[in-house]
Specification:
Largest sheet of chain A: none
Largest interface: A-B, 29 and 32 residues
Order of helices and strands of chain B: HHHH
Number of helices of chain B: 4
Order of helices and strands of chain A: HHH
Oligomer: heterodimer
Distance between the termini of chain A: 22 Å
Strand content of chain B: under 5%
Structural class of chain A: mainly alpha
Distance between the termini of chain B: 31 Å
Shape of chain A: flat
Largest sheet of chain B: none
Helix content of chain B: 55-70%
Number of strands of chain B: 0
Number of strands of chain A: 0
Number of helices of chain A: 3
Structural class of chain B: mainly alpha
Number of domains of chain A: 1
Chain lengths: 76, 163
């Protein structure tokens, strides 16, 4: 497995942490007019291009995590 | 990772922009009910007994027609648009579901392929069979997910399953 500098992992952790913190804020302080992630996705899915983008994202995640680099178990 | 990052951030950015725009449109709609020059939070209730002589029948115009467009033309345009939309929109049912799903799946697949090809040829040619794997792997995922999705939809809609 390739070794990367620690800062790279830290940036990813920070990005995901910010995402979850924002969602937590939106859920906690509903009166603050902060849209939750589900509200944002609902707005995105109203439009065909938004649905395509979300589907592409879902497809990319599935391909990246489950298909890419995968080998059939019995293949020589 | 870069392709995923672009997709995530792009999608969220578009969503936030649309959410803010629809919130602004809602606020504008509320403000349109009030009289000009009156604060937005003070709307006039309809008078209970307005004099008959002052009543003017309202023309069926679109909400907020653009400036410079005659009302009759705008109304004609709105009705034509509504007629077209009713022709395009199918009745709820399996046919509409399949068309909606196919449109989303094919559109999403093609969009991802465009992003991947653009990334491969424009930014970084990843080693190995990257593009080939993307085409076949994503098609495989759609092929695997489609029957499961249709079966779950059938169970939820027809058998009353709760997921």
């Amino acid at each position: 497995m390739a070794r990367h500098p620690l800062i790279g992992y830290f940036v990813w952790a920070l990005l995901f942490g910010a995402l979850f913190a924002w969602e937590g804020l939106a859920l906690t302080y509903k009166f603050a007019d902060v849209p939750t992630l589900s509200a944002t996705f609902r707005v995105i899915m109203r439009y065909p291009f938004g649905r395509w983008a979300l589907f592409a994202l879902w497809l990319w995640l599935g391909w990246h995590f489950f298909v890419r680099g995968w080998h059939f178990l019995l293949r020589a | 990772m870069v392709a995923g990052y672009v997709l995530v951030m792009g999608t969220l950015g578009i969503g936030l922009r649309l959410a803010r725009r629809s919130a602004r449109a809602g606020a504008a709609g509320t403000a349109a009910v009030t009289n000009p020059g009156q604060p937005a939070d003070q709307t006039n209730p309809a008078p209970a007994s307005a004099p008959v002589a002052t009543q003017v029948p309202a023309a069926p115009t679109a909400p907020n027609p653009p400036a410079g467009v005659p009302p009759a033309r705008e109304a004609h345009r709105v009705t034509a648009r509504a007629r077209r939309r009713s022709m395009v929109r199918l009745e709820p049912g399996w046919r509409r579901f399949v068309i909606h799903y196919l449109g989303t799946a094919v559109g999403g697949y093609l969009l991802l392929m465009v992003v991947i090809i653009g990334y491969y040829f424009g930014i970084s040619p990843v080693a190995g069979n990257f593009v080939h794997s993307a085409f076949t792997g994503c098609a495989l995922l759609i092929g695997l997910a489609t029957p499961v999705f249709i079966a779950l939809s059938w169970l939820v809609e027809r058998k009353g399953w709760r997921i």
